[in-house]
């Protein structure tokens, strides 16, 4: 259990002073509480004597008031020191986890769902904070207060104290058993919560798909089933706690029965004064909290260990893509050369790419065509090392991309992925995502290039229109063009367009391409497209087939290979365009003739 807490040692060491100061204040509070019954004993015995004056009670009463003030001040300061430390550790752990998750490669996100990662970053981190805060307090409080109370009880009357502590070993055994059960139950609860969170996240993120297929009932049933499973797991923990804590209280109550019996007997024999019995009763009542806190400590420590185990599973996962040990400081510039590149996904037996070799001159355009699943997007992900190509396969300016830092390599690329992702911000903020200091003139220029200027009147608040989560309020074409403008905003040396204009009409695409070619003059562009009209402007085109290069050349050269895939697609698209044009002519003629 405690091996999981090794992860927290750097954080605990950082706040050593706060914890020491908090422990000191806590011990002062415990000592003050244990001393108070001694003054109660003095006051009771004075009153029972029957021969006293009120001023005789002033001394113990004043002492108790002073101790009460010390207890109040001590409680404030131990909370100040320890609670603040635990809150800071919580924030640092959450930041550490988030930073580590951001450093992970694509394979990590294929194995871990978003909902489960969110549960670890929220629920599990909160439990760790409780363990380093109140759990720590309960542990120290229980140990020191129990020791002080037992010393005080034996000092008061050792013979009676021996009898009334008989139930304590049984309480200790029950607490240890309780801790083992709680650890297993809480691990199960957190796992179920992660699954529940993932179902909720998927359902809300894909709400348009859910509604379009009328699957609300299906997702409600999924959520309801996971929710009930979570409730049942929680109830098992509640029932376990509901049995153990009252039973511990019952055993503690037995000590009171033993005190009445043996203390009364001692009082009859004048071996114990009434004040001593009252003081002993006070100690017993005080002893209930350390006994309960022991159970609370085991509970929270076990829960913290279970949560830390889940956090450590993420923190101990190393990113597939690592910085090179022989990292160079220069920026990637020059020709892109791919040499005998092959890639296979970790969970697949087949190669997504096999023996790919191509050279892209600096400032030129490379077009990529291929069937679905031919490896086009995989190739794009390998260029900025979103997937790991391995050393000796991809070079920029004659230097292996694995020798550049990930930051410098990826900053050289502007990427418009196949699925455009937008943040829940305004259109302007999405476009200026990595270029916040852009001048207004340049902003207007790139929005014109991306063809967004014509849509400006469609946005309720212009560029300040909030797009909603993942751009839910926009059409597919609008999202693609905003993503294109975002990539152009950073003015990258290398622009990667992964079927980035698939959702726009042919006329808009042609207009965007003309503006884009002018914008990218002298800069390297790699573009995937299924439209020959898009690819024909490329300086070089490769056709991927089953992860291999089936054809390579310019548009004119590939059109001469009449039996090739490129020429066949070009012919089919030409026939489709002619057919559409004929349909438009017929429609116009019918309109003119009434």
Please give the number of β-strands: 10
- What would the principal axes of the Cα set say about the shape? elongated
Give me the side-by-side strand order of the main sheet: 6-7-8-3-9-10
Largest sheet: 6 strands, mixed
Give your account of this protein's structure.
The protein has 594 residues and is of the alpha/beta class. The protein folds into two domains: 2-315, ABC transporter type 1, transmembrane domain (ABC transporter transmembrane region fold), CATH 1.20.1560.10; 336-564, Rossmann fold, CATH 3.40.50.300. It contains 19 helices and ten strands. The strands form two sheets. A six-stranded mixed beta sheet has the order 6-7-8-3-9-10, sandwiched between helices. Strand 9 and strand 10 (548-553) form a beta hairpin. Helix 14 crosses helix 15 (476-489). It is elongated.
